[in-house]
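In practice, a research group might receive sequence data for several interacting partners and want a quick structural hypothesis before committing to experiments. The following worked case mirrors that situation: the sequences arrive first, and a predicted assembly follows.
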Amino acid sequence: MIYFLIALFIIALDQLTKWLVVKNMQIGESITIIENFLYITSHRNPGAAWGILAGQMTFFYIVTLIVVIGLIYYIMKLPKDQKIFGIALSLMLGGAIGNFIDRLFRKEVVDFVNTYIFTYDFPIFNVADSALVVGVGIVLVLTLLEGKKEKELS
Ligand SMILES: CCC[C@@H]1OC(=O)[C@@H](C)C[C@H](C)CCCCC(=O)CCC[C@@H](CC)/C=C/C=C(\COC)CC[C@@H](O)[C@@H](O)C[C@H](O)CNC1=O
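A structural hypothesis for the assembly, expressed as tokens:
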């Protein structure tokens, strides 16, 4: 299934970028990409978004396993014509597994994408987070569009 290849690609890209950051940068070290906008900063997060539930690894394992099993089930069950939906699910699957690998072996997640959206210093994230957020975003948009279409038809 092409969707599992997409998830594998995300996992590989996520783990490669994290490995490069861990290997070549000290924690806290920052490289300017675009002044005042984009930096690569080596960071670790023992929690979820914004560091919530730091250290609750058992909780993260359980939630991630439920998310991963749910996603695999939906990808297997997906009708042939819903390719975009399938791509969104595989982005989420790759992202969830990417962070799961970090939590399993490092007991924390490696983050390095440091952006300043306007002056707000957005939490530092990684490839897996981006895939998750993009995947969630596409699912939300498709669901809203689906709902709108049904309303127009009814
Ligand atoms: C993106 C999901 C977070 C990701 O969830 C995962 O792994 C999943 C598969 C497993 C979690 C245990 C369960 C989801 C918790 C839900 C959550 O957290 C609310 C999310 C809101 C979201 C709206 C969509 C905002 C976005 C935030 C950020 C991402 O910006 C691109 C900032 C990321 C930085 O705080 C970075 O340090 C985080 C670190 O890398 C660990 N990442 C995780 O826990």
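Before designing any experiment, note the following. The chain has a mean pLDDT of 95. The longest strand covers residues 109-117.
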